[in-house]
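Help needed: design a sequence for this.
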């Protein structure tokens, strides 16, 4: 095991591991708070999941705007400045969320925070794509998933206990971690934006923003995003609606939900390296279809079972799909993008999560507050089935293109 980890470490550049290390610390702070944010809103302001979903939706809608601004600025000015700005603003915004006393104030606050907190998202994705060659991206993103899930073991478990005593403490800790990460990033990680080609014309800021039209006219890329959005509508429920559903329908408290998230993280840590090595020689769109079918089974189970052990099993099944999908979709998005437009393509890629986050919590709240709560998971299973079929159709149309060829196929082609 140690020898295998040493081999993996030597395969990737030092800068990649610095990014991974700093990201791990940032994730620990985020996972203390994020899984319990819906619980915080409903408990602190005595509102239902519909109102909590409105706040989460506004964060995502305006986060999408921030992503689009950040994607263009990333291609124009580089990755590092945007990431540092995002970390500092994240600390300030987290504290403001913890200090607000009236629900109505959360609405304008969510709009401002959404724009500026997500402005660095494309820069993070573009930096990893800059550092890693195409053949290593799937494994690199998979490695980042393992480290992120180490944070999920620490964060939700500790956060669940702290949340039972003081939600505000979670906000303070998260803000402090963001400041620490900003300092580490400033001193340890340099810019990765590729130098322009000799003779390449200088692009104005307005032209940089106009470049989004290229990504938005890429019909194949939009098809990929559409399939992912359907999947994301369901996947996101594990991190916003599930905690409320378990509390209100099955009487499971925050510690129990935190353990479910920890079970998911342990599964990733134990098996992600192995899974990533196995899947890198498989067609990526077929992998997306397979992973989404695991989602279909796991999320449908939430509406069919009541024993806590079966909820753990459902989360493990979902996590198997997650280990297949997450590194694969990030690598696919990077491979769609021309080098000079990487930030903007990754910003558009954020639609796969921003749109589901914008409408998913509110829609889930309407179901949980007004209908049979189990219906939420039956609808989720159906959406996953449609998404899996869409990824299969993308494989039929795009799977033979060289940019989407599995690693082994590329190696054989190079040998010829």
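Sure. Designed sequence:
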């Amino acid at each position: 095991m140690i020898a295998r980890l040493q081999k993996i470490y030597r395969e990737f550049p030092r800068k990649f591991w610095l990014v991974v290390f700093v990201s791990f610390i940032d994730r620990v702070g985020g996972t203390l708070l994020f899984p319990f944010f819906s619980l915080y809103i409903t408990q602190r302001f005595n509102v239902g999941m519909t109102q909590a979903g409105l706040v989460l939706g506004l964060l995502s809608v305006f986060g999408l705007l921030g992503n689009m601004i950040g994607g263009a600025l990333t291609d124009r000015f580089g990755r590092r400045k945007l990431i540092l700005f995002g970390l500092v603003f994240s600390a300030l915004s987290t504290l403001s969320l913890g200090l607000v006393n009236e629900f109505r104030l959360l609405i304008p606050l969510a709009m401002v925070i959404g724009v500026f907190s997500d402005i660095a998202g494309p820069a993070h994705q573009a930096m990893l794509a800059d550092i890693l060659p195409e053949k290593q991206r799937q494994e690199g993103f998979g490695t980042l998933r393992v480290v992120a899930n180490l944070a999920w073991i620490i964060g939700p478990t500790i956060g669940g206990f702290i949340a039972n005593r003081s939600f505000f403490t979670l906000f303070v800790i998260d803000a402090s971690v963001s400041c620490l990460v900003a300092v580490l990033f400033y001193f340890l990680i340099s810019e990765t934006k590729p130098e322009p080609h000799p003779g390449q014309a200088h692009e104005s800021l307005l032209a940089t923003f106009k470049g989004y039209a290229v990504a938005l006219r890429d019909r194949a890329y939009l098809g990929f995003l559409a399939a992912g959005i359907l999947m994301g509508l369901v996947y996101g429920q594990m991190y916003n609606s599930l905690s409320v559903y378990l509390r209100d329908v099955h009487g499971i408290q925050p510690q129990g939900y935190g353990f479910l998230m920890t079970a998911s993280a342990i599964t990733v840590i134990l098996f992600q390296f192995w899974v990533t090595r196995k899947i890198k020689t498989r067609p990526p769109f077929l992998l997306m279809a397979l992973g989404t079918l695991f989602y279909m089974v796991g999320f449908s189970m939430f509406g069919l079972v009541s024993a806590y052990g079966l909820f753990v099993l459902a989360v493990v099944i979902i996590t198997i799909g997650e280990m297949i999908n997450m590194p694969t979709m990030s690598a696919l998005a990077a491979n769609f993008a021309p080098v000079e437009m990487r930030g903007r393509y990754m910003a558009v890629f954020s639609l796969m999560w921003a749109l589901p986050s914008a409408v998913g919590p509110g829609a889930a709240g309407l179901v949980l507050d007004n209908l049979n709560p189990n219906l939420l998971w039956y609808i989720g299973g159906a959406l996953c089935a449609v998404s899996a079929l869409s990824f299969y159709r993308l494989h039929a149309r795009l799977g033979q293109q060289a940019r989407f060829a599995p690693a082994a196929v590329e190696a054989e082609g190079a040998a010829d």
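Confidence is low (pLDDT under 50) at residues 409-416.
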